[in-house]
Amino acid sequence: MRRHKHRSITTVRQPMMLSRIKRNNFWIRFRIILMIAGIAAGVLAVIFFGFPLVEDLIKGVDPSLRYQPKVEANFSLEEEGVPKEIESREMYFDKKYQLKNEPYIDGDTIIFTTEAEKGSVQQLNGVVVYNTITGEERLLANTEKKYDNFISPVLSGNIAVFLDSMTAGGGRILGYDLEKDEQFVIKEYAYAPPSLSLSGERLAFMQWAGNETQRLYVYNVKTREPATVKLYEPTKGNSDVDISQSDMVWAVEDGKGNSVLKRIAFHEDTAEFDDYNFGNSVYGPKTNGRQIVFRTEKNSTSCTLMMSSEGGEPMKLADGVFDYDIGDNFVVYSKEGQIYVAYTNAADTAHITSDMTRNRLASANGSGICYYDETDKSTENAVLDEVVKYAYVPET
Fold it and tell me: Which band of pLDDT confidence, cut at 50, 70 and 90, is reported for residue 395?
C-alpha cells in the first residue's frame, strides 16, 4: 500500500515541473526580444538624431531648429480662378453734403443730387460729381432748378442727365455738359417721373402720355435728337426700360397676369426688335448687352432673380432678392440687408458687405457699384448724414 501511494505522488509532480520549465523559457525569450529591440532603437536613434546632432554642432547650428515645422515661403490662400476680393470705400465729405440722393457711378465718377443750399423747406437743389481717384467733389455751377427737386441722376462720360421734378407730378428731363458747364433741356413730362437709363450717347426712358398710354423714347445726348420708338395704347403698364451699348430691354404686361420681355437690338445705325422668349413672368429686366437679368415676381421686395446669357435658357441666381442691377461682368443684388455680386462668366458669388451692417443697393454700371450703408440710420435723427460706399468689381 505504501508503494502504491509513492507511485501516485511521483506521477503528479512531473507535469508541474515541466510547466515551470516552459514558463522560465518564455521569460528568457521575452527578455532576449526586449534586449534586441532596445539595441535596434538605440541604433536608429543614433542614426536619426546622433549623426544630425553631430553635424549641427560641427556647423554651429542650433539643433532644435532642425525639427521645427517647415513653412513654404510662397504659400498663399488664393486659389487659381478665385475672384479677387472686392474692396469697398466710402464717399466722404465731412457732413458737407449730408443728403446723397441716388448716387450713380460711371467709371471713376459718382454723381448724386443733394441739398446744396439749405432753406426753410428741404429740397434737392444741387448736383454733385465726385472723383473716386482724387476724392474731390464738384457742385455743378450752372444748374437751374425750375421745380421742386433734382432727382434720378445718370452719367455717361461728360454728359449728365437728371430730372427737375415737381412733387405733385410732372417736370422736365435735363442734360448737363460737364466740359462746357452747360445745362440743356431734353424734354418736359406731365405725369410720373420717368426712370432714366443712359449708355454711351443713348438715353432711354418710358413716359406716360395719359392715364393708360406710354411712349418709349430714345434720345441722343450728343446730337440732342429725340425719337419715339413705340407708342403703347391702353396698357396695364410697362416696366422701366434699361439700355446698353448694343440693346435695350423692358417688360410688357397684358393685364391677364402675364409679363413678357421686349428687346431692341442695335446694329450700327439701325435697330430692330429681337425678342427672347423667357416665358410670361418677366419683370424689371436689365441688360449689359450680353446678359439679361430679371425677376419672376411683380413684387420686388422679395423676388427670385434670373439671368440669361445671349438669350439662352435663364438660370436662377438667388431667392429673396430685394433689388438688383447689372454691370459689365456681374449682377449685383441686395438680400436681407447684404450686398452680393454674382459673376456672369463664372459660378462664383461674392459677399461684399459685413453681416454686422445693413445695406441698400443704389446703382451699378460698368465695373462700379454704389450702395448705402444704413447701419447707423436713425428715424429719430432729424439730421441724417447718409453713408454711401462704392466698389469696383475686378475682371474674372
Answer: confident
Do 55 and 98 lie in a common domain? no
Domain that residue 41 falls in: 2-60
125, 145 contact by CB (below 8 A): yes
Query: What is the rounded distance in angstroms from the CA atom of residue 136 to the CA atom of residue 156?
Result: 19
Rounded CA-CA distance 278/316 in Å is: 12
Residues 98 and 49 in one domain: no
Same domain, 235 and 114: yes
Would 215 be classed as within a structural domain? Answer: yes
* Residue 381 is assigned to a structural domain of this protein: yes
Q: 226 to each of 185, 187, 215, how far by Cα in Å?
A: 12, 9, 12
Q: Do 337 and 323 touch, CB atoms closer than 8 A?
A: no
Cell 411712349 -> residue: 215
**First vs last C-alpha separation in the chain:** 109
- Give me the number of domains the chain comprises: 2
Average pLDDT, the chain: 83
Tell me the helices (H) and strands (E) count for the chain, helix number first.
Answer: 2, 28
Tens-place pLDDT, residues 267-298: 877 888 888 999 999 999 999 999 999 999 98
Q: 2-6, 12-16, 273-277: which has the highest mean pLDDT? A: 273-277
Give the pLDDT mean for 132-146. Answer: 96
Q: Please choose, from the candidates 358, 361, 287, the residue with its C-alpha nearest in 3D space to the C-alpha of residue 326.
A: 287
Whether the CB-CB separation of 250 and 207 falls below 8 Å is answered with no
Backbone angles phi, psi at 24, to 5 degrees: -65, -40
- If one compares 380 and 186, the residue with the highest pLDDT of the two is 186
Identify the H or E element spanning 34: helix 2-45
Which of 38-42, 85-89, 108-112 has the highest average model confidence (pLDDT)?
108-112
Domain identity same for 56 and 107: no
Asked, for residue 85, whether it belongs to a domain, the answer is no
Q: Look at residue 71 in the predicted model and tell me its pLDDT.
A: 38
CATH of the domain at 388: 2.130.10.120
Q: Check whether residue 233 and residue 375 sit in a common domain.
A: yes
Q: What does the pLDDT average to over 139-166?
A: 97
Return the percent helix, strand and coil in the chain, to nearest 5. 15, 40, 40
> What ranges in 46-140 are assigned the alpha helix state H?
51-59
Q: Is there a domain that residue 69 lies in?
A: no
